[in-house]
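TA notes, week 10

Several of you asked for a full example with nothing omitted. So below is the full record: structure tokens for the whole chain, then the designed sequence directly under it. When grading your own attempts, check the secondary structure regions first.
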């Protein structure tokens, strides 16, 4: 039983990690569109950088804090500039869905960890 639960936990961790990285990739894609096509909006957001994408001549120290704010805001609110761009809106929907999946998988990982601890300390001996 332990081996099955441990294997399930490892698989879920890998899926959660992959979903998280994919969420960062979609965020970077949206940020790049904002930078290239809506520069004034990007500057109003504090000139944020992506997780894997950094525009030239941007100070990473300040832009990292802006990234955190923009990421959190975009998870819960569609930016006005995005509503006008159909292709970017599709990418935004993917960004939201993959981050929701990543959050769900994180909850599953926690539940699996709790179940594994309970099994180890209070479970049935094999």
């Amino acid at each position: 039983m332990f081996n099955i639960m441990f294997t399930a936990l490892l698989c879920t961790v890998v899926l959660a990690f992959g979903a998280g990285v994919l969420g960062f990739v979609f965020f970077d894609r949206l940020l790049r569109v904002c930078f290239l096509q809506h520069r004034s909006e990007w500057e109003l957001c504090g000139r944020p950088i992506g997780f894997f994408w950094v525009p030239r001549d941007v100070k990473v120290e300040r832009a990292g804090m802006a990234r955190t704010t923009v990421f959190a805001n975009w998870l819960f609110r569609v930016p006005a500039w995005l509503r006008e761009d159909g292709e970017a809106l599709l990418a935004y929907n993917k960004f939201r869905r993959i981050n929701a999946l990543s959050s769900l998988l994180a909850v599953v990982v926690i539940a699996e960890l709790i179940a594994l601890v309970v099994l180890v300390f209070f479970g049935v001996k094999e």
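Helices lie at 2-37, 39-44, 60-76, 80-83, 86-122. Use that as a sanity check on your answer.
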